[in-house]
Amino acid sequence: MALDSLLTLFILAVTTAFTPGPNNVLVANSGAHFGLRRSVPHILGIGLGFPLMIFIVGFFLAGVFRQSELLRETLRWGGALILLWVAWKVAVSGGLGSVSGRPRPFTFVEAAAFQWINPKAWTMAVAITSQFVSGAAPLVSALTVAGMFICVGLTSASSWAIAGAAITRWLTTEGRMRWFNRAMGALIAGCVVLLVL
């Protein structure tokens, strides 16, 4: 990949990874509720799961998604509905919960799998791979794009988790925590609305 294309990819990766979206809101919420250490699996799931998705979409599925509007729309609307459910769960409980019903942070697998139902991730994966994955060298270009998103994604997810953990000093009362949960749920729902529109 040419140097100017790498620079463009880097700028695009930074701006898309650091802007608010479902991943960033959820990992900030995890940092606030569970602290940075317990949020590490969530950070790694985002930082490695999305680049894996980028690689798979870029190398194997890009043509299929470009040709099938029905598949794109099904994934977009299905992902939006699941994200609205996630927003509600965060707003009312502060997390997705476990079998016992107590809130807990995302596991690595859950955070990585979440990429496949996240409309922002799908939009980014299809748009970015269509611009930067070359038909002449699909493996090398898909690996380059995925590698860029590993570096940027781990940095972004860590930053949002640290910001979430930093506000825990403010979230010392049940009322503040409840309003924080509602705000995080509303942010996720707002991201869904923006992504769908």
Word description of this protein:
The protein has one domain (3-196). It is 81% helix and 0% strand. It has helices at 3-18, 22-67, 69-93, 108-114, 119-132, 138-166, 174-196. The radius of gyration is 17 Å and the shape is globular.
Tags for this entry?
197 residues, 7 helices, mainly alpha, 0% strand
- Work out the helix count: 7
Note the run of SSEs as H and E.
Answer: HHHHHHH
| β-sheet strand percentage | under 5%
Number of strands: 0
Helicity, as a percent range:
over 70%
Shape: globular
Provide the gyration radius in Å: 17 Å
Class derived from helix and strand content: mainly alpha
Low-confidence stretches: none
* Average predicted confidence as pLDDT: 82
Largest sheet: none
Q: How many angstroms does the end-to-end distance come to? A: 33 Å
How many distinct folded domains? 1
What can be said about this structure in brief?
By secondary structure, the protein is an all-alpha fold. The chain has seven helices and no strands.
Q: Could you outline the blueprint of secondary structure elements for this entry?
A:
Layout: H1 3-18, H2 22-67, H3 69-93, H4 108-114, H5 119-132, H6 138-166, H7 174-196
